[in-house]
Write a structure and sequence with these properties.
Length: 280
């Protein structure tokens, strides 16, 4: 049995317009012997999967300032090659994405060079330095889908709570990196027997546990949705299972490069918990 699917541009836009405006397509008809209409393009998908585009919630396109590593065009092309049609780019660029003008820069450039949806996250603090709040509300108006310090924690608890409060009022989540930099110190590997044998400073599990517990409590107080990134362990000193998934999502990783599968899994977590998907 050969199944045929007809897709059509959303809102009935001409093909050139929906490609340019990235409004997406919808399934208009499914059957076995569909009649070809004027202007239809036939794609033989035998042996292939037909599915919605995948969303990657955590990518690094390094633009502005670090384009020798990656740029919007090359990153978007790599994503499209793997079936990823929407990405959320982290704000730890040079300079940091911490104001609406820089958000607009990324979105405008992506509209020119990218064939996928590139959404730019905004930093919680100016320059990701953890001392002064960024213009979160202004960046939300410019189109950020989330707030994130990426690989840093906002160590000032009062400042972190205020960032969560503003983001909650604006209706965007926080992509949270939980790492107590004071407790981490000069640690360079997991605190275990190998670290002792090599004489290297270790990083204990409490480095993550303390900030994770703190931010779950802050999320409860601010009625805020968090997505916890970069976790190595799921061993907490208290029972959080009764409430954590209402406000907190966990991203556990083995290697940072495993982002595709990591975010695919947590997209299903987003949909299956009481949280609504927060983008698109």
């Amino acid at each position: 049995m050969r199944l045929q699917i007809r897709i059509t541009p959303r809102c009935g836009l001409p093909a050139d317009d929906w490609k340019r405006k990235r409004t997406g397509v919808i399934i208009a008809e499914i059957g076995q012997k569909l009649k070809k209409k004027d202007g239809d393009r036939v794609i033989d998908a035998k042996g292939k999967l037909v599915m919605p585009g995948i969303i990657d919630l955590h990518v690094h396109f390094r633009d502005p300032g670090q384009t020798h590593k990656e740029d919007i065009k090359s990153g978007a092309a790599a994503a499209a090659r793997g079936g990823v049609t929407t990405v959320v780019a982290m704000p730890n660029t040079t300079p940091t994405i911490d104001n609406p003008d820089r958000v607009n820069y990324v979105h405008n450039k992506a509209a020119q060079v990218s064939g996928i949806h590139v959404l730019q996250a905004g930093a919680a603090t100016m320059g990701e330095k953890g001392t002064e709040l960024a213009d979160i509300a202004g960046m939300v108006k410019a189109g950020i889908p989330a707030v994130s310090e990426d690989g840093k924690s906002v160590m000032n608890t009062a400042l972190c709570k205020e960032a969560m409060r503003i983001a909650a009022e604006c209706g965007v989540p926080f992509f949270d990196h939980c790492e107590d930099i004071d407790l981490r110190g000069d640690g360079c590997m997991n605190e275990d027997e190998n670290a002792k044998r090599l004489g290297l400073p270790g990083i204990c599990n409490a480095v993550e546990d303390t900030i994770t517990a703190r931010d779950i409590i802050l999320a409860l107080e601010t009625q805020f949705s968090c997505f916890d990134t970069h976790l190595n362990v799921l061993r907490y000193p208290m029972d959080l299972t009764s409430f954590s998934l209402d406000f907190f999502l966990y991203e556990v990783f083995l290697f940072h490069s495993a982002g595709f599968f990591r975010n695919l899994i947590f997209l299903f977590v987003l949909i299956s918990t009481s949280l609504r998907p927060f983008i698109f």
